[in-house]
Amino acid sequence: MQIVKDLQALDEVEYALDFKMFDVGEWYTYGFSPFFQAFGADLIDREANQAEGTLNGEKAIEAGKWFKSLFENGYANQNPPGDTEFINEVAALSWTGHWNYNPYTEALGEDLVLLPAPKFEKQATGMGSWAWSITNNSENPEAAWKFLEFVLQPENIVQMTDANGAVPARSSAVALSEPYKKGGDLNLFVEQLETIAVPRPVTPAYPVITDAFTTAVDNFVSGGDVKEELDNAAQEIDQEFEYLGIN
Amino acid sequence: MLRNDKKSITTFMLPASILLLVFMVLPFLMAFGLSFTNQRLIESPRGTQFVGLTNYVRALGDNLFRTGLTNNAIFVLVVVPLQTALALALAILVNIKVKGNKFFRVIYFIPTVTTMVVVSVIWSFLYHPDGLINGFLTSITFGAWDGIDFLNNTTTAFPSIMLMSMWQGVGFQMLIFLAALQEIPDSFYEAADIDGANTWQQFLYITLPQLKNTTTFVIISTTILAFRLFTQVYVMTNGGPQNSTYTAMLHIYNMAFKRLNIGYSSALTVIFFLIILVISIIQRIALNDTEEEV
User: Fold this and answer.
1) Which domain of life is it from (chain A) (predicted)?
2) Complex ipTM above 0.85?
3) Does A219 touch chain B (CB under 8 A)?
4) Is B5 a domain residue?
5) pTM, to two decimals
6) Where are the alpha helices (DSSP H) in chain A?
7) CATH fold for domain A2-127+198-244
C-alpha cells in the first residue's frame, strides 16, 4: 500500500494503478476475484456450492472495501477512456494478463518489468483461458483428437504463444519458449501458475457467478455499498444453484 | 385501376404476413411455451423439463426486474411527451415555406437513419469527462465548469441517455407530423385569416385538431419504442452506475444471454409484453375519447 502511495505522490504519475475498468465483463472475474482469494475469501464455497457466507463473508467485504478504496483515493481511474493508461505512461502499474506482454514491450521496451502478485493473507492470481475440446456429439472424435495431438505438440504451442503472448500450457513447451523458460522474462507467470493460481469455479452455475460478481464490483466501485452489492450477488448465485438443483 | 379482388390482396399481403409470422408470431408463441420450462441456452445434460409457474413466481420477487420496469416507466413518462412536442415543433419549423427547408428536413432526419450503436458510441465520447460537452462547458464558463462524468454518475446517467435518445428518435416522428401537416388544406388557414385569427389561434384550433389521429399514432408508437429501450443502455452504461439506467429489456437480455436462462427470460418477456399491451390499450381508449369530444 505504501508503494502505491509513493507512486501516486510522483508528479509524472496520474494514477498509480491501471485496472482496465472499461472492460466490464469476464475481465472483472478473471482479474479481481484473485484479490478476494488473496484476502482469504472466494466467489463461492466450492464444497457446498454456496455463495452465502463466502462471497459476502467478512473477508470478502474487507477485500471489496480495499479494492473500492483504491478508486476513492484516486490511485486508479474508475472510468478510463480506453486501454491506453499504461502505454501512454499515465499509470505506473498495470494489473493485466500475459496477453499484454507483446504490446507493452513494443511500447516500453527495456523499461517493462513484471512483478509478482501482491500478498495479503496470501497470494493469488487468475488462471485458465481458451481451451481445446471435443464435443460429445462429435462425428469423428478420433480424427479430432489426431488433429489436436498435432496442434498441441510443444513446437506448435510455442509458435502460438510467441504470437499471442500466452503461457505455453505444457511443461515441455515452456522449456522451448524464449520468454517463459527458466530465467526468461516471463517465467514468473509459470511459477505463479504452478503455485498460487486459483481456477474459477467449475460449475454449470458459472455464467451467473461471473455476471453477478462483475455487476457487484462494477456497482460498488461506482459508489455503491460493498456489503449490499455482495449480498445481492451471493443471493443471485445461490438462487441459481437452487434452480439447477446442485446445492 | 384498383383491383379489390381477393387474389391480388392475398398476393400483396403474403410477403409481409410470412415475415411477421416467422419472425414475430412464432418466436412469441415459442417464448410463451418456453416460459413454463427450465430451458437453457446451452442444453443442460438433464434436458429441458416442464416447471409450471416457477419462472413466473421468481419474476414476482425479482428486484432487478422491478428496477428495470421503474426506470422504463420514468423514461416513458419523460421522453414520450417531450419527444412528441419536439417532433411537432420541428415539423412546423421545417414546413415553413422558406428557401432551404428541405436541407433542414434532411439534417434533422440524419440521426434517425444512423444506426443506434454508432450514435451511442459517439455520444459516449461526447459525454466523457474529457469529452466535447465538458470541454465546451469549460471553455464557455472560462474554466469555472468542473468536468462531469455524465454516464458514470447516478443522477446524470439516465437523463443523458434520455436526451440522446430523443435527439436520435425525434426525426422519425417529425417526418410523420410533417406528412400530416401537408395534408391540412390551405383553405382552412385562409378562412381563419379572414376571420381574424392570429397564428397561435390557428395552431390551436386548426393544426392541433387536424393532427389528432397522427398524434395518437405518434404517442403510442413512441411509447412502445421507449419501452424497448435497450441498445443505448447496453452500449453506453450497461445498466450502471448502480443500476440507475437498468431497463427491463436489458434484464431480459442478461438473463437469456449472460446467465443462459432462456426459460426464465421467456417468462419475463411474456410479463413485459402484457404490461405494454395493457398500456397501449389504455392509451388508445383515452386518446380516442378526447377525439369524440372535438
Assistant:
1) Bacteria
2) no
3) yes
4) no
5) 0.84
6) 2-9, 26-38, 58-72, 101-108, 141-151, 154-164, 171-176, 187-195, 206-221, 226-244
7) D-Maltodextrin-Binding Protein; domain 2 (3.40.190)
